[in-house]
Amino acid sequence: MSRDESLVSESRPSRFERGLELVQSKLFSEALGYFDQALLHEHFQSSRIKSQCHYWLGECYFASELFESALLHYSLAIDLDSTNSQVFFDRGYLESRLKHHSNAIRDFDQCILLNAEYSWAYFHRGWNQFHLAAYEEAIQDFRKALELGTGDLILAAREWLCSSLKAISKFWLRNGNLELVVSYLEELVQLQDFCNLKYLQMLSGVYSDLRRHEEANEILTRIIDLDPRNSASFAHRAYSFYKMKLFDYALKDYQTALELNPNSEDALMGIEKVMAGKLKLQQKILQSIPKAKVVDAA
Predict the structure, then answer these.
(1) 265 lies in a domain?
(2) Domain span holding position 288
């Protein structure tokens, strides 16, 4: 967990000071005794310094994996001083570890209220929102973590943002709101390093269901570039060309699909549809030409 220098006071009791030195050396078990003695015997100049003592006790118990004791002392620290975002963050982080998702979210809410630039707080709040299936809220938090974050946080936030976008896309697909599905999948496929063919195919299918064939065609072209021996993708792109009445392109893609998979019924039926479509279009063109001109041409 990150640390806040404001948690160290320049005017601190000697036992407290010795406890902090042990913490800095990662001697948490030894530090516990000094902080306990400081609480029992030292006269604290302010409730804020006493709050810090409880906070560091919480940190030592956390490091020793004595989580219930850690929670107790984080809470005592907050009771004495509720203005430090780091204490809320660390208690929220521990609540997350214990899978107390609602409690964790409340702590991260308060942390962010006190420090709106605390990027990791957005990430961890989003992580807990995700595990409560509050995907929209999780998406907002992971976006904010990406906006504010650097380094490892960028990688973690992208990964969990993708997971949230996938989950909410599936939810709205089951519930029939295709426009929402498109909006989330479009964001997902922009995160190229973290997207796979499955979700590109899902997006192309939703575009097709919405009769947005040009957009479906663009995604299918991207899929084919990634997997040029995927017969189904050629057949699906051929269908989008067919719906756009680009019959020659459709025929070419259906033929490629058939070469890749000679047993493709979609390709065989598609070729028949394309040939019928071309014939119907030719007849329509002929019918639109005035009869006199047709005779002259003959």
Answers:
(1) yes
(2) 196-298
**CATH code assigned at 237:** 1.25.40.10
Give the C-alpha separation, 298 to 292, whole Å.
10
Let me know: does 97 contact 71? Beta carbons within 8 Å.
no
CA distance 67 to 96: 11
In a domain, 232, yes or no: yes
pLDDT for position 6: 44
Task: Please report, for residues 3, 32, 59, 63, 171, the alpha-carbon distance to residue 22 in angstroms, rounded to integers and kept in the order given.
Answer: 15, 9, 12, 13, 50
Residue 7 scores a pLDDT above 60 = no
What is the rounded CA–CA span in Å between residue 98 and residue 38? Answer: 29
Instruction: Let me know if residue 238 belongs to a domain.
Output: yes
pLDDT the model gives residue 192: 61
243: tokens are 């719906």
- Kindly state whether residue 67 falls inside one of the protein's structural domains: no
In 3D space, the residue among 151, 109, 110 whose CA is nearest the CA of residue 126 turns out to be 109
Domains: count for the chain: 1
Asked if 15 and 38 touch (Cβ cutoff 8 Å), the reply is: yes
